[in-house]
């Protein structure tokens, strides 16, 4: 069998985003493209570290020393450093919020740009020792007033984000991105060092056959969630849904985008606000979900409508196929 010749017209992430910006005309300054270039570099750097983690002593606890007597950093602390350094150096950021840091970083005036980036540098890092997929999640806002930089800039509704995405570090590194005109997926070509467009215009199937919850928490779940789960496990059709739960949000959401179904991390009787963080977990994933034709809700309201009160707050989170999430909402709206 003859192999097809390799493509000589690769669409890189930068080329793709630049094309979008050019189409927007004079309003676009190219700043977002430059910021996304910085984010791409961090993803490549983190991907390399995740892959080599065991070999270069990155697994384990921060605070330990390696054989050379150097302080070791846990992979999530290292990933956070990588992100903060690159974003600050890009000159395009005003405020940064990281899961790893208690306080927001206000970028000093001389390096300041007009974007704010909220991110979880290495989500799912508790899985890393087992080689499970982990990822970086990010959301991008524009500052409220040009030149300024304050906490208010990152306490805006999720719907105000101008872009959001994640990079999943698995057998390959996949960067999924939306700048508000649909969702595209890019795969890192390690030889070229470029993210290449491999999943154009991702649309979540309107209905799936998979549910993804940590059902071990069922005894704490509120009634609508348990009633919904019962309905998909004991359906009149006799065809129950399949359970898939990796426990790494990026991987569980990624599968949900491609195959459809529902992902949920609800608030419950024990975790009153759920577990997932609003700013840098729920918002970016909700933004991508809606851009891909799905629904993202807390059960009581649209996630992107929430106005955050503090940068690390948590929220209940369900997202995925439109029909599946709407089925769940019926149990919230019409409790028996
Ligand atoms: P982390 O930010 O400390 O890594 O926690 C977030 C992770 C998500 O990736 C995942 O969806 C969730 O925690 C899994 O939680 P649980 O182990 O309670 O099911
Ligand atoms: Mg996290």
UniProtKB/TrEMBL annotation:
Gene3D superfamilies: 3.40.190.80, Fructose-1,6-Bisphosphatase, subunit A, domain 1
GO term, biological process aspect, one: gluconeogenesis
Quaternary organization: Homotetramer.
HAMAP family from the UniProt entry: FBPase_class1 (MF_01855)
The keyword Signal belongs to this UniProt entry's keyword annotation: no
Enzyme Commission number: 3.1.3.11
Protein name per the record: Fructose-1,6-bisphosphatase
Entry keyword Cytoplasm: yes
Family under the similarity heading: Belongs to the FBPase class 1 family.
Top-level taxonomic group: Eukaryota
Listed Pfam families: FBPase, FBPase_C
């Amino acid at each position: 069998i003859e192999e097809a010749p390799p493509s000589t017209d690769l669409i890189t992430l930068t080329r793709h985003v630049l094309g979008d910006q050019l189409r927007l005309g004079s309003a676009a300054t190219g700043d977002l493209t430059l910021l996304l270039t910085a984010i791409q570099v961090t993803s490549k750097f983190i991907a390399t570290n995740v892959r080599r983690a065991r070999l270069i002593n990155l697994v384990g606890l921060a605070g330990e020393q390696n054989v050379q007597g150097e302080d070791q950093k846990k992979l999530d602390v290292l990933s956070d450093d990588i992100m903060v350094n690159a974003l600050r150096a890009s000159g395009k950021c005003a405020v940064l919020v990281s899961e790893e840091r208690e306080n927001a970083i206000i970028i000093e005036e001389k390096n300041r740009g007009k974007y704010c980036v909220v991110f979880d540098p290495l989500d799912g890092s508790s899985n890393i020792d087992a080689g499970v997929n982990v990822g970086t999640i990010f959301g991008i806002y524009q500052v409220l007033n040009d030149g300024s930089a304050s906490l208010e800039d990152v306490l805006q509704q999720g719907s105000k984000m101008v872009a959001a995405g994640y990079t999943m570090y698995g057998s390959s590194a996949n960067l999924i991105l939306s700048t508000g005109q649909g969702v595209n997926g890019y795969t890192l070509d390690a030889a070229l060092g470029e993210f290449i467009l491999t999943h154009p215009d991702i649309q979540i199937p309107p209905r799936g056959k998979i549910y993804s919850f940590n059902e071990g928490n069922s005894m704490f779940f509120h009634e609508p969630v348990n009633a919904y789960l019962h309905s998909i496990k004991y359906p009149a059709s006799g065809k129950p849904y399949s359970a898939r739960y990796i426990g790494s949000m990026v991987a569980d959401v990624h599968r949900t985008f491609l195959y459809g179904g529902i992902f949920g991390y609800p608030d419950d009787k024990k975790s009153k606000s759920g577990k997932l963080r609003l700013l840098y977990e729920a918002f970016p994933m909700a933004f991508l979900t809606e851009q891909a034709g799905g629904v993202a809700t807390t059960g009581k309201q649209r996630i992107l409508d929430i106005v955050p009160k503090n940068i690390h707050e948590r929220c209940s989170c369900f997202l995925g196929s439109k029909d599946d999430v709407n089925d769940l909402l019926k149990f919230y709206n019409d409790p028996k």
